[in-house]
């Protein structure tokens, strides 16, 4: 409500009361109107002055302060001194909006702080395990019988495996931080997906043998399947997913890669018959450092970053990734790619 309306209503109430009292004693209509108009005018002026001087100017000041704080200095300078016509109402609206903004800002900061805390503790945890193992083997070598070549070889091999684990972890950490900061943009290319899958299978053949797992990619897929994506990044997606199918697969197991033509996308599915994933873990599987209890207990040297990297790459392509899994039966990771017809 505008200030003058507010003051006028007040003045009207006072003027009417005085005029009625006057009419009650004088019984004169002329006196009634004179009292009414004179008191209306004087009380309007007095109320206006008092409210403006002691209440409104203060509210205007608060309003301007909030308004300036909300806009920030630069914007305020650009807009010049803005004075609202109805500060009481505006103050209420602005304060509400301001409080809402501040609340979401605080929530965001809290989330970031929680993330930073978790991030540091996750990193130190992942570094600690292999580092302490290396330290242990070196100490054992220093104290042990150097003349026992078999023991020396074993300890060195174990230390070396942990050094590799550290190196993989740091490589993954570097990859995820670069992906998250947008340092490595997506370079779209038109390429034949079938060629890429065959290349990845060739590069992982030895590792598959080590884990006793057979890779399947059927002949029917050998006609070209054209997609538009960042070839090297998609290679990383295949490597991470197939590598997981080894780590969480069973000996003599199978991993199959299938592609399906959708309307304007290609769906790729990588299926294993490994240990599977409990349903309760599925929603958080793609989070950084997230690992299921089962995989932790398997003592598999993973960074917990592989799937986070995969998700980042797929989402940077504006595509989607999903997982289906049944414990002790196997898992299927599926992702889409833009199809080039
Ligand atoms: P890690 O380095 O631990 O393998 P990932 O981000 O690649 O990290 O995977 C996160 C977790 O998801 C793994 O620790 C494992 O528990 C689970 N996981 C991933 N792939 C599979 C799979 N094919 N089968 C069963 N569990 C899997």
In words, what does this structure look like?
The protein is an alpha+beta fold. The protein folds into three domains: 3-85, no CATH class; 117-181, Signal transduction histidine kinase, dimerisation/phosphotransfer (DHp) domain (Helix Hairpins, Orthogonal Bundle); 189-339, Heat Shock Protein 90 (2-Layer Sandwich), CATH 3.30.565.10. The protein is 63% helix and 13% strand. The protein contains nine helices and seven strands; from the N terminus they run αααααβαββαββααββ. The protein has helices at 3-26, 29-71, 73-79, 87-143, 149-180, 193-211, 231-247, 293-297, 306-316, and strands at residues 189-192, 213-216, 226-229, 253-261, 265-272, 321-326, 330-339. Strands 1, 2, 3, 4, 5, 6 and 7 form a seven-stranded mixed β-sheet that branches. β6 (321-326) and β7 (330-339) form a beta hairpin. α1 packs antiparallel against α2 (29-71). The chain is elongated, with a radius of gyration of 37 Å. The model has no long low-confidence stretch (mean pLDDT 87).
């Amino acid at each position: 409500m505008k200030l003058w309306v507010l003051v006028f209503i007040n003045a009207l109430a006072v003027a009417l009361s005085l005029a009625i009292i006057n009419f009650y004693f004088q019984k004169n209509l002329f006196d009634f109107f004179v009292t009414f108009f004179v008191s209306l005018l004087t009380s309007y002026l007095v109320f206006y002055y008092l409210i403006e001087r002691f209440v409104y100017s203060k509210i205007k000041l608060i309003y301007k302060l909030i308004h300036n704080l909300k806009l920030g200095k630069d914007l305020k300078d650009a807009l010049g001194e803005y004075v609202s016509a109805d500060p009481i109402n505006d103050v209420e609206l602005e304060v509400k909006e301001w409080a809402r903004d501040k609340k979401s800002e605080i929530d965001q900061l809290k989330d970031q702080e929680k993330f930073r805390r978790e991030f540091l503790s996750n990193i130190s945890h992942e570094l600690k395990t292999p580092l302490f193992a290396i330290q242990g083997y070196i100490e054992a070598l220093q104290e042990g019988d150097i003349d026992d070549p078999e023991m020396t070889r074993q300890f060195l091999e174990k230390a070396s495996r942990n050094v590799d684990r550290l190196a993989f972890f740091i490589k993954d950490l570097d990859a995820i931080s670069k992906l998250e900061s947008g340092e490595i943009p997506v370079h779209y290319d038109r390429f034949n997906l079938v060629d890429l899958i065959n290349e990845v299978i060739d590069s992982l053949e030895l590792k598959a043998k080590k884990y006793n797992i057979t890779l399947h990619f059927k002949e029917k897929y050998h006609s070209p399947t054209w997609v538009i994506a960042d070839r090297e990044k998609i290679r990383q997606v295949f490597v991470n997913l197939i590598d997981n199918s080894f780590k969480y697969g069973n000996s003599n197991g199978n991993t199959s890669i299938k592609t399906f033509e959708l309307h304007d996308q290609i769906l790729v599915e990588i299926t294993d018959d490994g240990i599977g994933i409990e349903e309760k873990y599925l929603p958080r599987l793609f989070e950084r450092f997230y690992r299921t209890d089962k995989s932790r207990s398997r003592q598999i040297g993973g960074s917990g970053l592989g799937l986070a990297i995969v998700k980042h790459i797929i989402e940077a392509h504006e595509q989607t990734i999903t997982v289906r899994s049944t414990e002790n039966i196997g898992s299927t990771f599926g992702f889409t790619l833009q199809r080039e017809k």
